[in-house]
Structures are given as structure tokens and as C-alpha cells.
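Researcher: Last one for today. Full complex below.
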Amino acid sequence: MIELLLEPLSYGFVLRGLAGGLLAALACALLSAFVVWRGMAFVGDALAHAILPGVVVAYVLGIGLFFGALAAAAIAVVGIGLISGRQRLKEDTAIGVVFSGFFALGVLLMSRITTYQDLGHILFGNILGVGSSDLILMSGVVALTVIVLALSYKEILVASFDPAHSVAIGLSPTAIRYLLLFLLAMTTVVAIQTVGVILVLSLLVTPAAAASMVSKRLRTIMALSLAMSLAATVIGFYLSYYGDVASGPVIVLTLTLFFVLAFAWSHTKDHLLRCAGR
Amino acid sequence: MPQSPALFVRNLEFRYPGSETDVLEGVSLTVQAGERVALVGPNGAGKSTLLHLILGMEEGHRGQIEVYGNPAHRCFHRVAIVPQRSTVDWRFPVTVRQVVMMGRYVHLGWFRRPRQEDRDRVDEALSKMDITDLANRQVGELSGGQQQRVMLARTLAHDADLLLLDEPLNHVDIATQELIFHTLERLTADGKTVMVSTHDLGVLTVHFTRAVFLDRRIIADGDVKEVMTPETIAEAYGFEFHKEYTP
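Model: Here's the assembly. Have a good evening.
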């Protein structure tokens, strides 16, 4: 059994893949609770798609994909802010317009400029393609996410729970929102390496959704999200290695299974409590 | 030098971006420290907008707003709001204690952790609002009345001098309503200033000395008994109110 677990790790690229997967899962899981409870799932999905043109352009220009992606995400966030600002249109409408426009541009650029295979892993992830420099970047993003969340935890709490009070004490909820969007953009960019643009939403939403079935406390939700994300990544990784299937979908399906189990547990518990209360 | 009024508003005009009409027109209002003022008017009269402008939550007004002689955005520690229920995300996972601690943030400074003094003030506020036993509960699980006690406890922990309460009586049980008024009376007795927006005329005569009737502009302002005339109410609410009972 131990041999089965250790065997894949004897290859450097496989080991890097697992480390990359764990780092991406860690960064996403840290933000997951805020994505779920602040209702940022749609904008998270939009960001993941909106980075596509940035990635393609960076690829063509030969600069780091990370920076191309981050630039595209920044433009998308500002665009969404401008369209929905001053209450002209609702934010989800603005997100819909920007998200689909950017993604279409990305697909067009991909089809014109590169072969599909070159950037196919951006859409679906390629955990075994993680390089040493990627790992350094991913570690940087995880460290930054941890530091920012630890420093501004109480600020995020008040801006999320009661924006009016937040303004009254001089803390702009918009600034906090942009801070979270910035973190979201960076974690999304590192996570597309492992699960791809299409499935990255799962890493951002499903862990905290499952954890929220089990606990109502934010810190517990965050801790459980972390545990489930890391477990799903390890399980998905080995299944993908031995089953010879793509890692992204297996990680996502493992997380989804965790959610189904948590959902079932929560309903069973509620049912039992109601019966006991009678 | 005479003490600045708690609130000074002159010729305030405001319209929301993209709107064709003003929400507030030429509103002027001075509230002295220690006053307990009811801001009365129908829904859509601009009560919440006025409170938000005082806090600096909306930009783009014309006219002057001062809190203790300063623009509101320069004295955060002196103004607190109990916002309308609908602006709070009650489903967000926070405990009662965490919410009340939010009242201490302004004294704490950004990115700092609460000190013992902050925890003591939170305990004191919880006890005053009689919700110590709820401290570790999730705020979303509580009743409307309990939630309003939490919000008032947060305001007590904030220890502000000017308290703005936006429709605090909605969805609140009688016991909580009495506790809210009792607390506000004690606060104003201690020199704090309180402004409460409400569309409930029933509470005016018992709990307030001064009423400001607002319907985009100020319709009447003064002693509750003097301004609460059928004419004022009809003008503010746009209907004939109990006119047959007027002497």
C-alpha cells in the first residue's frame, strides 16, 4: 500500500504536480468561505474565464502566463466595476457581459494564433505540467493570501456582514471587495494549472459549500474547506495517476462527492433532531 | 467658544445618480447634544438617505453636513448607525460576540486584534442588552428582536456620541422595543445624541421630545406635541389622517 502511494512520487514531475495541486487547493480553499458567503461565485467563475485572452497574449509574447492572466483579470474587474457603477446596471449583468466577451476573445485568439493543443491545458488543467518556477509562484500566491486574510480578517467580516457600519467606521466595503477580487484573480490563475479555466470554480465554491453543511462557524468552515480541498487533491491525484485519467475532473468530482456526503449528513442530522424534538 | 451642535445640516440637496428627481430638497436641521429626535415620514421620504449622507455613505450631495463641527468622515468614532435590517447580510456566518466586537473596530485601528479592554466593553454591552447568553450563537439564528438587541449592543460598544438608528422598530417584539427606548433614554440622559428614523407615529409622543417630519423636504420640526397635527401628518403621508377627531 505504502509502495503504491510512494511510487508516483519518485518521478520529479509527478511530485511537482502533487505539490502544485496542493498549493492551488490551499489558496482556493482559503478564499472559498468568502466566495460562498459573500455570494461571489459568479464573479469568481467570470474571472476564471476572463483571464483566457490574457493567457493567450502572454503565451504569444513569450512573457509569463501568470502576468498576462492577472492583467486580463484586472481589466475585467475594472470593466465590471465601471459598467455596474453608479447603479446603471446590476452587477450580475455587468459580469455576464464582460465574462462572455472576454472568454469569446480568448477562444478567438486561441483559434487564430495557437494550436489548440498548446493551450488546451489552460481550459482543462495539466497538473503534470507544473514546473519549478510555477511552484515558486504558487507558494508566493498562497503566502500572500494567508498574510492578507490574517491581517484583514476582521475588516472582511464587517464589510461582508454590515456594509453600512463598515462605511460608518471609515472602512470602504468596495475596497474590501476589490481586495478579495484581487486575491481571487491570483488564486484562479494558479489554480487553472491544475484544474483549468472551466473547473476552477469548483475549487472556489465546493469546499466551503460542503463545509457549510457541517458547521455554521466561519473559522470551522475555513478549516474544513482546507481539509477537504487538500484531501480531494490527493485522492484525485492518485486516482488520476493509476486510472490514467485527467486530474482536473477527478479532483472536482472528489470534491463534489464530499459535498454530496456533507449534504446528506446535514439533512439526516436535521431529520433526526426534528424526530427527537417531537 | 460655544459647543458645536451634534448635527448641523444646511440646504442639503441630493439625488441618486441617474435619477431625475431629488430625494432631498433644501433640508436644514440642527440637533444639539443630548437631544432625542424622531425622523418621521413615509417610506421613500428620504429618511435613510439623510442618515446615509450624515455618515458619508453617499457622495455627491450639495449643502453642508457637520457632526460636532466636523465633516462626518472625519469623526468616525463619534457617529454610529444601527442600519435598516435589509442592508445587513444576516446569513453571513458571524457570532453575536463578533458582531458586537465590530463596534470596537473604530477604536482598535485596522489590522489589530482586540485587547482586554475591548473584550470587557463587549461583555458590558452584551449584558446591558440582556443577550450575554446568546454571545456564542450565530446571529442569523436569532429572532428579529434579538438581532436588533445585538445591533444596539454593538452601538453601545462603539461608544459613539451621535447615534443614528434607521427604522429600528421593524420586526421587533414589544419587550425589545421597550429595552431599545429605555437604552436610548439613558444614553441621552448621559449627553449622547440620538436620531431615530421611523414611520411609526404611535411611539412619538411617549418616547421623543422632538420630531422632524420629512418628505423629501422638512415639513415640520419641533416639539412632538406641537408638530404632530393632522395637517402635518396629512402633508407628510399624503392622506387625511384622523381628521374627524380634531377638536
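The CA atoms of residues 66 and 238 of chain A lie 27 Å apart. Chain A has 13 helices and no strands.
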